Inverse folding.
């Protein structure tokens, strides 16, 4: 099956000029700006370990912006309410259908809000749990049990959910995991180095998946 246009553009840029990734600035009152050091640290890790060429400073983009289509990877996090209006939902859906990728990382407290907003984007699609044998858990770093646990909240297991478009994972929702917290500077959460490395390696797998699928 032919790859979407944005995927082809991203694959070309992956091997040549530096690419940008972005943080989603959404409405509703949730702290979209949480974990300010996480994406810069993930970028640094990916550029040094999996040979990506991502610009050191991530951009910020709004769901309704045409600039959304400039980014192969858009990250979304926070603890509270999320609201997409009709135009934002339509633009996000077009972005994902064109080959874009949205990673939503529940920073604890987002789950009850984000699920209904995902339903706005894809009313006929259900979030499906991604099995441990999916490519996103296989390379370049192996996570044989699937999504790793970074921070403990309610004693629940970490789960990765997705929306697939033509067999391509386009939207990844990580729940009860807190990957973004693990990407932050070491002194922010005082995580042991092995926990931070686990989070960064899983993040690198996500970035690798985008550029190779």
């Amino acid at each position: 099956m032919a790859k979407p246009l944005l995927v082809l553009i991203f694959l070309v840029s992956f091997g040549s000029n530096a690419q940008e990734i972005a943080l989603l600035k959404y409405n509703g009152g949730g702290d979209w700006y949480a974990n300010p050091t996480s994406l810069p640290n993930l970028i640094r890790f990916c550029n040094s370990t999996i040979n990506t060429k991502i610009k050191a400073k991530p951009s910020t983009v709004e769901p309704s912006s045409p600039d959304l289509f400039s980014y192969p990877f858009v990250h979304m996090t926070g603890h509270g309410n999320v609201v997409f209006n009709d135009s934002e939902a339509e633009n996000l859906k077009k972005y994902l259908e064109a080959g874009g990728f949205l990673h939503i990382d529940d920073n604890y407290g987002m789950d009850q809000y984000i699920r209904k907003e995902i339903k706005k984007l894809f009313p006929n699609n259900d979030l499906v749990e991604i099995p441990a044998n999916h490519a996103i858990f296989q390379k370049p770093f192996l996570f044989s049990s699937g999504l790793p646990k970074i921070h403990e909240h309610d004693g629940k297991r970490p789960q990765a959910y997705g929306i697939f478009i033509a067999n391509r994972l386009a939207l990844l929702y990580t729940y009860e995991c807190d990957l973004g917290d693990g990407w932050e500077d070491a002194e922010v959460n005082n995580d042991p180095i092995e926990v931070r490395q686990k989070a960064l390696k899983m993040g690198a797998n996500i970035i690798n998946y985008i550029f190779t699928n």
Observations:
- Residues 155 and 176 are 9 Å apart (CA to CA).
- Confidence is low (pLDDT under 50) at residues 11-15.
